Amino acid sequence: MIIESAEVIVTSPDRNFVTLRLTTDEGLVGLGDATLNGRELSVVSYLRDHVVPLLIGRDASRIEDTWQYLYRGGYWRRGPVTMAAIAAVDVALWDIKAQAAGMPLYQLLGGASRDGLLAYGHASGRDLPELFDSVRSHLDQGFRAIRIQTGVPGLESIYGIASNKTLEGNAGKRYDHEPAQRGELPVQEDWDTRAYLRHVPTVFEAVRAEFGPEIPLLHDAHHRMTPIQAAKLGKSLEPYDLFWLEDCTPAENQDALRWVRAHTTTPLAIGEVFNTVWDYRTLIQEQLIDYVRSAVTHTGGISHLKKILEFAAQYQIKSGMHGPTDISPVGMAAAMHLGLSIHNFGIQEYMRHGEKTDSVFEQSFTWNGGLLHPGDQPGLGVTLNVDAAGTYPYVKAYLPYNRLADGTVHDW
Ligand code: EZ4
Ligand code: CO
Question: Which is it for strands 217-220 and 146-150: parallel, antiparallel or unpaired?
Answer without folding.
Answer: parallel
